[in-house]
Amino acid sequence: MTALARSRARGVQTLALDSPHRRNALSAALVAELTAALTDAGRDTDVRAVVLTHTGTTFSAGADLRDPPDPDALVGLLRTVVELPKPVVARVTGHVRAGGLGLLAACDIAGASTASTFAFTEVRIGVAPAVISLPLLPRTDPRALARLYLTGERFDAAEAARIGLVTAAGDDVDAVLEPVLDGLRRASPQALAETKRLLTARVLEAFDRDAAQLTALSARLFASPQAREGMTAFLERRDPEWVV
Predict the structure, then answer these.
(1) Number of C-alpha atoms within 13 angstroms, CB side, residue 151?
(2) Are 173 and 111 in contact (CB under 8 A)?
């Protein structure tokens, strides 16, 4: 059963995470399906840009704790977004948590509604935002990220824009993104591909340098006793044993 809705209009391919009953959590199946859909869009000469959005009230709750993706597969998805020769634009009208923030950071441009909220919740279940740091660290304010990584606290769309996690926020996200999509439709496909290559060079350096180390860290932490306790506590809707 597909967890991804597809549509196209005037050269823009829209891919919508479409598993609202699971808060669009990144399962192994969804990661594989989204990676394949992005790859197809990158090869399609009729596609000028990709919009990545969602159904329901959550863009993505992060990794699906019941069916988590392999860390290497998540790296592959994030790298696919960054390397795609077409601009990828995130359209967010809901909440984003944990691994969903890595997907957001991998996009070239991101618009969020003022109703959206964000949080790096990994530390609260005993793991770290390891793999998603590949696109996040080169693109986001480091002092702000230190606080948000270490505390897991929630923040709003205005703060997300201030620290560089999203490009812009507004009450009407479609109004925010309308001039963006108009600009992309007016741009030469060759120019878009080469300009994106310039903009993503530092991000791809992080992938080349750090991906193996961070996937190993992610796998080690998810297999740890504290992560098992944290994930169990989350699913049981209680505080983990370390909360004081």
Answers:
(1) 10
(2) yes
Beta bridge partners of residue 16, listed in sequence order: 5, 53
- Per-residue pLDDT, 1: 66
pLDDT of residue 44: 97
Q: Please state whether beta strands 88-92 and 95-97 pair in parallel, antiparallel, or not at all (unpaired).
A: unpaired
Q: How far apart are CA 225 and CA 233, in angstroms?
A: 12
pLDDT, tens digit (0-9, with 9 covering 90-100), for 150-179 = 999 999 999 999 999 999 999 999 999 999
d(CA 149, CA 32): 27
Select from 144, 140, 165, 169 the least CA-distant residue to 157. 169
Single-letter amino acid code for the residue at 102: G
Domains of the chain with bracketed CATH: 4-173 (3.90.226.10)
CA–CA dist 13, 163 (Å, integer): 28
Total-model pTM: 0.96
- pLDDT < 70 stretches in the chain: 1
Collapsed DSSP state (helix, strand, coil) of residue 231: helix
| Cβ atoms within 10 Å of 195's Cβ, excluding its own | 14
